[in-house]
Design brief:
The C terminus is likely disordered. The chain is about 60% helix and about 0% strand. The chain has a single domain, classed as Orthogonal Bundle (ADP-ribosylglycohydrolase fold), CATH 1.10.4080.10. The protein is globular. The two termini are about 25 Å apart. By secondary structure, it is mainly α.
């Protein structure tokens, strides 16, 4: 989960100042945590405590009301009786990483990913983005190769993951949709050589940088066994203390790679 939060913070400085290069400072003065981190922690808190996903997301969202939420989510957050609003936005995928780390079977991961999305993003594209992200994390921590992750996530989601960053980058622009964000973020991971390289790939696309890096970072942390110590230290320094405490509690319960994922994951079982 910390890999997703680190990606959010790293990408935050480039969300409205897009770049098309991998050569950039990881934590410039403007780097901050955004709604991606707050809602990632909210889902983790719900898993830790058994709370309803919707209640947890509202509690944490209202605790950090200026984290940068989209207009539809803001209306939901302050509604007297919040209801799903048919969103296909990438918010469903940006907050789901804890699910990929916390559950021990493919079926559980997919079911919980759907539940986390459906509180707001009940459009099929919102559900698909959450499932694809959580499944990629599950497969990564199960020991699958990049090729196995590519094939299985593409088969489940229908996303085209055979494109390359070189093909995507020139025309890629800010896209708040799951269908525009999740495949690109997964490709950024699939072409990476390390956690940091995955996040740099994601930011270099020049799109919704914090969310691209959040999604790619979550998968990369699962695949590479965590984040580098210097990046972890920067996250601890920047993240609000109450958010950091949930991260620590989640790590203490689930460890670096979550409960043992079944080795049948590589065959799709």
């Amino acid at each position: 989960m910390i890999g997703a939060i680190a990606g959010d913070i790293i990408g935050s400085a480039y969300e409205f100042h897009p770049i098309k290069t991998k050569d950039f400072p990881l934590f410039p003065p403007g780097a901050r945590f955004t709604d991606d981190s707050v809602l990632t922690v909210a889902i983790a808190h719900a898993i830790l405590t058994g709370a309803d996903y919707g209640e947890a997301v509202r509690t944490w969202g209202l605790r950090f009301p200026n984290a940068g939420y989209g207009s539809g989510f803001r209306r939901w957050l302050w509604a007297a009786q919040p209801r799903p609003y048919g969103s296909w936005g990438n918010g469903a995928a940006m907050r789901v990483s804890a699910v990929g780390f916390a559950f021990a079977s493919r079926d559980e991961v997919l079911a919980e990913a759907r539940r986390t999305a459906a509180i707001t993003h009940d459009h099929p594209e919102g559900i698909r983005g959450a499932e694809a992200t959580a499944l990629a994390i599950f497969l990564a921590r199960a020991g699958c190769t990049r090729a196995q992750i590519r094939v299985q996530v593409a088969a489940h989601s229908g996303y085209d993951l055979d494109r390359t960053l070189a093909e995507l980058r020139p025309a890629y622009a800010f896209d708040p949709s799951c269908q525009g964000t999740v495949p690109a973020a997964l490709i950024a991971f699939l072409e990476s050589a390390s956690y940091e390289d995955a996040v740099r790939n994601a930011v270099s696309l020049g799109g919704d940088a914090d969310t691209l890096a959040c999604i790619a970072g979550g998968v990369a942390a699962a695949f590479y066994g965590g984040v580098p110590p210097a990046i972890r230290a920067a996250v601890e320094r920047i993240l609000a203390p109450e958010l950091w405490q949930v991260v620590l509690a989640f790590e203490q319960r689930y460890g670096e790679n979550g409960p043992r994922a079944g080795r049948t994951a590589a065959s799709g079982g």
